[in-house]
Protein: Response regulator
Organism: Chitinophaga oryziterrae
Amino acid sequence: MSKILLVEDDEVMPKIVERILHKEDYQIEHVTNGKEAFQRLEDTNYDYDLIITDIMMPYANGFEILSRVKNRKEGKPIPVIIVSNAGNEAMILEGFKLGADDFLKKPVIPGELLIRVKRLLMQYDK
């Protein structure tokens, strides 16, 4: 069972993502801000198979989470999907420059999210 960390401060989005991904038996852990995300990553020693994060959040934004995950030296690489309603070109490019594996604009299309999650998990499972 793949373990996914969802970092999202919106109230509705986590319910949608969990409903989509639980059907495939993914284990979802949800935190509501960057500070909680950093704590969870440290507590679990980065033991996640995928991270889905919003960009605009309190305490630390999605780019900071992305940078920390992608710049760590030890452990397995973890794919990161950025999901945001702030989908201007500059933000998307910044995310990819920092190492994002994918970018989805809100509101997410359930089938598209599921396919992208499966694809990334298969790529990183090699």
Summary: Helices lie at 13-22, 34-43, 62-71, 89-97, 110-124.
